[in-house]
Write a structure and sequence with these properties.
Blueprint lengths: L1 E5 L7 E7 L6 E3 L2 E3 L5 H6 L6 E2 L2 E3 L5 E6 L9 E10 L7 E4 L3 E5 L1
Antiparallel strand pairs: 1-7, 2-6, 2-8, 3-4, 5-7, 8-9, 8-10
Length: about 110
């Protein structure tokens, strides 16, 4: 399963993405909220190691990147997975320039 980032306004900017089983109430950060829950999937996805790929990097010249999560063949269904990303900037509050909206993948 995968998610694509399309953010031309953030071309060539570093990003970190994460996945979660829920998006509410999210992670409060200064006056902003990252729209993901801090569950075990969230912390696992931050490692950017198998089964997670592309969850950290630099957006290309068009502001694009792709993330994939390799899922086991047997999962309890239905299952909703959420993903979001932040763009990084050392001069921004908490080093986070932008927080994306949540993208949902519904497995049925």
């Amino acid at each position: 399963m995968g998610w694509d980032i399309r953010a031309p306004q953030w071309a060539a900017v570093p990003y970190v993405a994460a996945a979660s089983f829920a998006s509410f109430p999210g992670l409060r950060l200064d006056t902003r909220t990252i729209p993901l829950e801090a569950d075990w999937l969230f912390f696992s996805s931050l490692t950017n190691t198998a089964p997670f790929a592309g969850f950290r990097g630099v957006l290309d010249g068009g502001g694009r990147a792709s993330m994939t999560l390799t899922l086991p063949s047997r999962l309890p269904l239905p299952l909703d997975l959420y993903a979001a990303y932040v763009t990084l900037d050392p001069g921004a509050p908490n080093f986070i320039r932008n927080i994306s909206n949540t993208s949902i993948a519904r497995l049925r």
